[in-house]
Specification:
Elements: H1 2-6, H2 8-35, H3 98-129
Helix pairs in contact: 2-3
């Protein structure tokens, strides 16, 4: 009933809340990867992003041109999805690359701050809509 009353805004707020929880969990996991950078045999871990169905958060994605990236992440032109080559595993069997992990930490922090900012702005808009805001 709350989703019906809030409509699309409620779905968007729930999606942002889910995303912030995911970023918190991912930050902890990335910190563990960095902390175990010298542990023999340690393999870094990462979390899969939460799946949000198209249209669930009130946003419907569409590919408007064949040269744009599609919903599956594929592109019409020669897009290389393999990514940069990985560095070698250290002699003790550890596969943690500190540079990669720190880049992930920084990007994760930035993405969390964006989601938190959007969530805060959404709450402010809801307060204004019910007459409790400015």
């Amino acid at each position: 009933m709350a989703d019906t009353a809030l409509g699309t805004g409620g779905n968007l707020m729930q999606a942002l809340k889910t995303r912030m929880h995911w970023h918190q969990s991912r930050q902890k996991l990335l910190a563990e990867n960095v902390a175990n950078a010298d542990s023999p045999g340690f393999r870094p871990h990462d979390l899969k992003a939460p799946a949000i169905a198209p249209g669930q958060a009130g946003v419907v994605m569409a590919q408007t041109s064949a040269s744009h990236m599609g919903l599956s992440g594929q592109r019409g032109g020669g897009f290389d999805s393999t990514g940069a080559p990985r560095f070698e595993i250290t002699p003790n069997g550890n596969a943690v690359n500190l540079e990669d992990e720190m880049m992930k930490v920084a990007q994760n922090q930035s993405d969390y701050q964006l989601a938190a900012s959007l969530y805060t702005k959404g709450l402010g808009l809801m307060k204004i809509a019910i007459g409790k805001g400015r």
